[in-house]
Design a protein that fits this description.
It is built from six helices and five strands, in the order E-H-E-H-E-H-E-H-E-H-H. By secondary structure, it is an alpha/beta fold. Strand 1 (about 1-5), helix 1 (about 15-25) and strand 2 form a beta-alpha-beta unit. The N and C termini lie far apart (about 55 Å). Adenosine-5'-diphosphate (ADP) binds next to helix 1 and strand 4.
Amino acid sequence: MIALYPGSFDPLTYGHLDVIERAAYLFELVIVAVLRNPSKTPLFTVEERLNQIQKAVQHLKNVDVDAFSGLTVTFARKKEASILLRGLRVVSDFELELQMAQTNKTLAAEIETIFLSTSTEHSFLSSSLVKGIAAVGGPISHMVPQHIEQALRERSGPKEDMH
Ligand code: ADP
């Protein structure tokens, strides 16, 4: 079975990577799908995010990275993916994720949404949290791969005042 893992990944964190690595054991192919979302203003362009994710998953042979716009289920059908994969961190994720899964089911009955719960050490992690910490020069090396940390340092504001 082919699983599509859609999201913003602005940027990819170790939480996302954990979900991808575990899914790579379960599915024949995992496609990480970066949404081109005109209503969001991302820190990194879609192309930058594709490169960042590609580098982070290069050790996983059955993981592809791609971008899409429009409906997730339309892209899943195009890629012959029968599974939509999402991560669940905390209870507050659940309501929106359930609504999305149920909506997608009405749009494409043959596609199932599967949730992987995050491992406890990553349950606090989100892309916006990482961006917030990076913006003030705080430590993020335990949250994102090294090349993404570097990209965040280059893109974010001045270093934390050491005095
Ligand atoms: P979106 O804008 O679609 O929510 P995100 O990049 O924020 O895009 O998240 C993509 C998916 O990854 C979502 O299912 C989200 O719940 C999941 N996710 C985000 N952070 C983590 C984490 N730390 N652990 C596990 N799953 C996560």
